[in-house]
Amino acid sequence: MAFSGTGKSLLPLGGGIEDLRLRGAKGGVIRKHRAMVGLEWSTTRVGRAVLLSLVFTAGVIVALPWLGRFYTMLYEELIWWIGLPAGVGVQEIRVGELLTIPIPYFRLAAPWPLRFHWVVVGAATAIGLLLSFLLPVKYLPARYFIRFVALVQTVSLGFFALSSPPFLYPLPGYTAGMLTAGIAVLTLIPIVLGFSFYIFDHSLARQMLLTLLLLGHLAVLLPLQVLIHAWLSHYLSALVQPTMFFVFGLLVEVLVFVAFYGWAMSWPGEEIPQTQPARRALR
Amino acid sequence: MIRNLLAAGLWVVVAILVIYTLRHYIFTLNRVFGRHRQPYVDIGMGDWPEVAIFVPCHNEEKVIGGMLDALLAADYPKDRFFIVPINDRSTDGTAEIIDRYAAEYPGRVRPYHRKEGKPGKAAALKEATDRSDTGIFLVFDADYLPGPNLLRQLVAPFFDPSVGAVMGRVVPHNLNRTLLTRLLDLERSGGYQVDQQARMNLHLIPQYGGTVGGVRRSALLDAGNWNEDSLAEDTDITYRLILRGWEVVYQNRSECYEEVPENWPTRIRQIQRWTRGHNQCLRRYAFQLLKFPKHLRFWQVIDGVLLLGVFAVAPILLLGWVFATSLFFMGYQFSQSLVVLFAVASYSTLGNFAAFFEVATACRLDGSRNRIRLLPFLSLGFLVNLLAISRATLSRRSWLAVPRAGPRWEKTERYRNANTVGKV
User: Fold this and answer.
1) Rounded CA gap, B78 and B414, in Å?
2) In chain A, N or C: fewer CB atoms in 10 Å?
3) What is the pLDDT of residues B21-56, one digit of tens each?
């Protein structure tokens, strides 16, 4: 059954006893209270969710070799464009006999911290920490976030102060690992959407639109994110690499996913009516 | 050796997260597609029993007038209910406002002014219970605004003699004040529209929340009355009722409007109070539940324990971060499996996706979809909650059987302009 924004039915009721319960005095449809609204678990709905998940997952997997080659070309252009003194290497991930995914990485070193790096990163951490205390209380989450970043960076500073080179995670392996993890996330997205989005009452077009928007956005974001990590790690030394990994690694992808998901869940559907929440300004 | 121990610890943390994630998913899918269990919602007529409505107050001059007006306008036989504003040592104008209402509505508003005895909501409720012989008590917080039909809806389940307590849905009315109020509105939607209703559907343990609900006097006394020393008398009585074989039911249709905190410090104090109270209950009742009493079903026990442990998850997450960071700096094998592990740990830290899924679903079912666009901002709320809850959990007060300083009123700041509501 579908509803208009004003509660009038767009589709005629079927005429059964169940439908008569929802028939208004003037022939309209009486909406269910929001406490009772739900969706029907139908074979069509489940089938569509499974099919979409499978099709998009297969699509992503088939596209991965092309994506890997695209990332390689992109990196070669970008390092020239931003003047990063790096080369681009490629390592291959084999999935069985059928699939070989080229994963580009940067032939670049994240130097062991020198005096300059200690001063810059240490000062940035201290300024961030100070800033967190100066922020008004209404920005408390921002305060906490800045302090969290500062804490991770402080632990990193402590680690490098107490240990000796080389760093455990050389930049080439780190960039390849980040890209590999990102690609794994990319592959999982249609499956997560299958559980959490395709089961709702959005039209097929909207379901496909969200999937393409998400995959497209993340496919572009991912290599740029890894490039920024490499750039910062090269110029600010390995001091910043742990913070990049923990705070600005996959968490960014997850938040992007949540943002797109939240937007798409606000799109109109075909079964659940939209109502205005009761708002009372009691001030 | 240490690395292996840390890795094992991290796996345990991830396992706990996965359990809670699955729980969120199951609840959400059940709420969307499952059969709704709202057995008392159709009861519109009946021989309505006499009801005493307790409204514990401590310095509530900004809101108590609006609350009393709303209750007096209730669609419930006038001779079958009376309101007991329990004024516990208020130092503002609360007592005068209540007395004015009592003078205007003699017999219908019967104030009880406490000047001695233990302070706090639980103690106030216990004293009021001892002084009343009414069969059913409804309890509201002073800032709540019940609609006219709410009393009948909350009383209807008590026609079922197995029901010991009932809880209604809490909906914020000041949601458009700040980002925080909007985020709390999202959280409340997820918590009630999905979480509580799914627990009701699945015959688990819906929680009596103590702010918009009711308790049967005989059940309350059977379970040992309100626990004056509890920091969360609502959770405490929920578990004692369940352990004594009473049903606790949730009525999703019975909405009541509350004022949520409008600033972060107030919110932090509120959630820390909930944490300490909830952890007290975890300490008191988890082992009793895990003895698997015969009248409880297996999944009721399991979910009951998970519900008790819900505030312990935040410090566990923090511990997971400590483990993961330590392993990273110790050069633990950066294998593919660890990548997945870090991925899980990462997004769990800012609220696992299942929680976002639950909230988005709840808002969609509510029919007010635009607010779902705020979903990513919930991670800010989760971050604050994570730290606030962890601090409260790690405090000694969280685990003492009886608070050393004794119970006290832990006030949530009110924002409403007292002149806006309250006719008397």
Assistant:
1) 30
2) C
3) 889 999 999 999 999 998 888 888 889 999 999 999
- Do A262 and B373 lie within an 8 Å CB cutoff? yes
**Interface contact A266-B357, CB threshold 8 A:** no
Percent of chain A at pLDDT > 90 equals 67
Residues of B in contact with A251 (CB under 8 A): 346-347, 349-350
Shortest Cα–Cα distance, B169 to chain A (Å): 9
* CATH fit for domain B1-424, picks 3.30.1540.20, 3.40.50.620, 3.90.550.10, 3.40.50.2300: 3.90.550.10
For chain B, which residues make up each domain, given as ranges? 1-424
What predicted TM-score, i.e. pTM, was given to this entire model?
A: 0.89
Of A144, A200, A272, the CB nearest to B367: A272
Please write the tens of the pLDDT for every residue from A121-147. 999 999 999 999 999 999 999 999 999
Average pLDDT of chain B is 88
Q: Which residue of A has its CA nearest to B370?
A: A266
ipTM: 0.89
Q: Note the pLDDT of residue A283.
A: 38
What's the whole-number mean pLDDT along residues A188-214? 94
* Distance in angstroms (rounded) separating the CA atoms of residues A186 and A197: 16
Q: Do B357 and A196 touch (CB under 8 A)?
A: yes
Closest to B376 (Cβ–Cβ): which among A138, A200, A258? Answer: A258
Please state whether A37 falls in left (phi above 0), alpha (psi between -120 and 50) or beta. Answer: beta
